User: Fold these one by one.
Assistant:
Number 1:
Amino acid sequence: GQNIDQPTEMTATEGAIVQINCTYQTSGFNGLFWYQQHAGEAPTFLSYNVLDGLEEKGRFSSFLSRSKGYSYLLLKELQMKDSASYLCAGFYNTDKLIFGTGTRLQVFP
Amino acid sequence: EPEVTQTPSHQVTQMGQEVILRCVPISNHLYFYWYRQILGQKVEFLVSFYNNEISEKSEIFDDQFSVERPDGSNFTLKIRSTKLEDSAMYFCASSDGTETYGYTFGSGTRLTVV
């Protein structure tokens, strides 16, 4: 199967920068999604990377290396409201998403 | 902003009963999906639906599950005889087929089987 691996938990301080890593299997890979999920709520779309490199969207950026099967989500100027789970999901040859376990990020004052 | 609507938000049912979870996808989307998330676990794919038929289903989606698009707007997931282990958050999602914007997920139905 297509495994998506990411750390289970991370902590950071308000105003800081945090990088959440994700590794995935490259066979049949098309692209990589990042979603934010608050407890008890639906995942909300953050980014989609198909090509290698960094894509920046405000405080959030996402990076992809197709050859290494690696992605990261970079969150800058952290705010308390950024405390959530961040889900890495691979889009493979079929039209389904394969999700990682999610990384629960806690932001402290 | 267009959204995927799911009802009910919370459903409690007795083991062995049938449940129907309802979803209204975004109106111009053509691809529809159900995912589930057991508490504390990852989001898992159940089924995808396109052109009025299932395009793919996972091992979880056994004979107890079915999907239907009974009219032009609703997309339903039926569980024929619920089991305790079916307790989870069920998310409906829809897509216009372009990968760029990903799926739009509904707010979910929390199913509790007692």
Note: DSSP finds no helices and eleven strands in chain A.
Number 2:
Amino acid sequence: EVRLVESGGDLVKPGGSLRLSCAVSGFNFNDAWMNWFRQTTGKGLEWVGRIKSRGDGETTDYGAPVKGRFTISRDDSKNTLYLEMTSLKAEDTAVYYCAWYLQHWGPGTLVTVSS
Amino acid sequence: DIVMTQSPDSLAVSLGERATINCKSSQSVLNSSNNRNYLAWYQQKPGQPPKLLIYWASTREYGVPDRFSGSGSGTDFTLTINSLQAEDVAIYYCQQYDSIPWTFGQGTRVEIK
């Protein structure tokens, strides 16, 4: 069974940093291209970024609102995906989801950016 | 970026009746090399992540009831729910995965009349 579980969501002050994790099981993570999405009440669903597999260069792409502030990485030995978020803004407040392809999503973790 | 626009924003349909949701992309999501439309439909219920219903615009995901169907090509797409059931109350999103950044429609809320 494919399983993805995000963790690390928290309340953080504007300008702060946070690292989210996504632990996966049930599929070959080494070969998987992984995505992060987020969802806010105001802006709906938004693609945050993706990381390719090591075999495909482990390259990353990001959406414009987070480019330069967020970094996606992976540890294939731990079957874990990461999202490092810096210079956080109020508009980054959202539920963050990791996903494999289109059909496998985690339950999400809430990040709140507020003073 | 490709802008995805859904219509209507919400609709109320009687049990057993048909619900139709439209999605328009600002540019074509049809890939000429493989003739596939990179368009997906999701269903989301409160407190849950989006659930994939349809991909390649018209291919039903495994386990999705056949009352859900997708159609369209290029820039205009439709999700049809035939014989609406109570468990279909949700918000539905279209998404293009043809080009980065992947983008979503604003969502359509389906309720029971």
Note: Chain A has no helices and eleven strands.
